[in-house]
TrEMBL record:
It is a multi-pass membrane protein. It comes from the Eukaryota. Keywords: Hydrolase, Membrane, Transmembrane, Transmembrane helix. GO terms for molecular function: serine-type endopeptidase activity. This is rhomboid protease. The keyword Cell wall biogenesis/degradation does not apply. It holds the Pfam family Rhomboid. The chain crosses the membrane at residues 78-97, 143-160, 196-216, 222-239, 251-269, 305-326. The keyword Iron does not apply. The lineage of its organism: Eukaryota, Metazoa, Spiralia, Lophotrochozoa, Mollusca. GO terms for cellular component: membrane. It comes from Mytilus edulis (Blue mussel). InterPro entries: Peptidase_S54_rhomboid_dom (IPR022764), Rhomboid-like_sf (IPR035952), Rhomboid_protease_S54 (IPR050925). Residues 183-325 form the Peptidase S54 rhomboid domain.
Amino acid sequence: MATSGKLSRLGNNFIQFQKFHNTTKYWTNSGNRKVLRHPERWRIIPSRGFRTKKSKIEFLAEEAPQESQRFRSLVKPIGFTVMVCGCSFTGAMIWQYEGMRSYATKMKSGNNQSTNDLSFLKNFGFRKHISSMWNSLTEGEKMVWTITGFNIAVFLMWRLKNASVNNALYRYFTCSPTSGHSVTSMLWSTFSHQSFFHLFANMYVFWSFSGVMLHLVNKEQMAAVFCSGGVISSLASFMHKIVIKGTMPSLGASGAICAMIGLVCMANPDSQLTIAFIGDILGFSFSAEKGLYGLMTFDALGLLLGWKVFDHAAHLGGVLFGIWYWKYGRDLIWNNRGKVMQMWHQLRGKT
């Protein structure tokens, strides 16, 4: 039974330590393996999206919860999921209200000057150029770039040669029902990628669907769907791991992206989709409806057959949430936002 453990780094190699009755074992990613006991304890983190066959960073999975605690351990994740979904959509409604109020105030005062005209405040050439580029984006595009930038920032943090940073990333930016992870990792792991290919693939798909989604819903709804889809996919992953007694952590934005895919494909079932790069070469395309059903079938097979490359439960959870939101969630949540806006207006007052 493991009594204590920590993560450290030496040079370019990550070293993991675990004590077994005063006996220490370690493993490095350079290919040199020295395992004194229980070699089956070492696990590779599966991502919610694409990943290479050999991960650059590998962590030791903690002990699975005891039988009596397995389903009890879902109480906090379920509560956190409900809280994040509620706060995401409530915050989106308030965000839209404040935007409308700000616009009305500017129109009333006659100050309808574009933010592009304020770029003269940046006196230096580079800052002025960056400011001009940023101000030329729509509000929706700014939000997409912000989400992308956060993902890139977390990816760069994984590259730091600092044991305390890596410990924090492991605890808060990888998702697992085991005791070594914070429940907030259900959200933060949505923005976490440890390999460049994983980051590139997810951001490519994210950008491919974000433009279409912004034509279907406003930026506030898109942000709420992305965050809610991320935690719901994490909850689905939690449930699956508890059922199969799995302990391997997951990370990646593909659960939230699958929510976007489910929404877009359900809204435009006859639209034509292609597989990245392959469709341009072979000229092969398929309808969004067939692509959605194909994705769900693939992930369902992955669950039934026990495939380990992707987090299929997270993908299915995200897709089903996106489908539900387009068919029912908009009428149930967003179209009733008037009550929330009225309460916020009264609470805010004239300030």
